[in-house]
Amino acid sequence: MWTANVSSSWLAGFTVCLSLIVSIGAQNLYVLRQAVQGQHVRACVAWCVVSDVVLIGLGVAGMARLLGDNPDLARYLTLGGALFLLAYGLIALWRMAMAPDAQLAASGGQLAPRGLLGVVSTLAVITLFNPHVYLDTVLLMGSIGARQEGVLKWVYVVGAASASLSWFVALAFAGRRMKRLFEKPQAWRVLDGLTGVMMLALAWWVAGSALAPAVG
User: Fold this and answer.
1) Which residues cross the membrane (predicted)?
2) Exposure of 189 by Cβ count < 10 A (0-12 exposed, 13-18 middle, 19+ buried)?
3) Model pLDDT, residue 111
C-alpha cells in the first residue's frame, strides 16, 4: 500500500508538472535560444529545474494559501516584470528587422556575447515576473501537492522535479540538434520574431493582470 501511494504521488507530480511546462512560452524559447547558441545551457537548465522545485515546494508548504489570501502581494513586482519583458520583446523585434545577416550569423542571433550572470539573471526575470508561474506552479501545483498526506507531499515535489528536469534537458538537446538549421540568418529572424511577439504578449498580459485589481 505504501509503495502504491508513493508511486501515485510521484506520478501525480510528474504528470501535472509536465502538462503545465510543455508549451511554447517565454521561458522555453529563452532556453531553446541558449541551447542553439551553446551558451550557459547547463546553468539555464539548472535554474529552470531549481526554480520549479522551489516554487512548487513553497506552494505545498503554504505559499499557495498566502498568495490566494493576498492577491496584491506581487502587483508592483509584476509591473516591473512587464516593463522588462516589453523591452526584451522590442529588442528581439529590432534584431529581426534591423540586424545585418552577417552579424546575425556570426553572433548567433544576438548583438554581443553575454556572460553567465547576464544570461541567468534575464532567465530569472522571465521566470519570476510572470504571474503565470505563480498561478500554475505555486497555486495549482502547490494546492494539489498540499492535499497529499505527510511525506507524500515531498514525493509529489520530487515527481514534479523529475518532469521539469526531463523537459528542460530534452529542450536543450533539441536546441543542439537544431544548430545547423540556425546557421542561416533567416532562422534567427524567425526565432527573434516569435520571441518578440511572445514577450510583448506576455508583457501585455502581465501588466493587465497587475493593473486589473487596482482598477477594479
Assistant:
1) 12-32, 44-67, 73-94, 115-134, 154-175, 187-207
2) middle
3) 45
CA 178 to chain centroid? 20
Residues 6+ apart with CB under 8 A from 129: 77, 78, 80, 81, 82, 84, 85, 206
Only one residue has cell 515546494, namely 57
Average pLDDT over the chain reads 77
* CB atoms near residue 215 (< 10 Å): 6
Asked if the model's pLDDT at residue 74 lies above 70, the reply is no
Task: Kindly report the pTM of this predicted structure.
Answer: 0.69
pLDDT for 69 equals 63
> pLDDT of 152-207, one tens digit each?
888 989 999 999 999 999 989 988 888 777 767 787 788 778 878 877 887 787 67
Which residue in this structure is represented by grid cell 522551489? 54
Query: C-alpha distances in angstroms, 210 versus 25, 60, 75, 116?
Result: 19, 24, 5, 30
- 15 close to 166: Cβ distance less than 8 angstroms: no
Distance CA 123, CA 26 (A): 9
Using alpha carbons, select from 62, 30, 48 the residue that is nearest to residue 128: 48
Q: Can you tell me the distance from the alpha carbon of 100 to that of 104, in angstroms, rounded to the nearest whole number?
A: 6
> Looking at the chain, how many residues does it have?
216
Query: How far apart are alpha carbons 164 and 21 in whole angstroms?
Result: 8
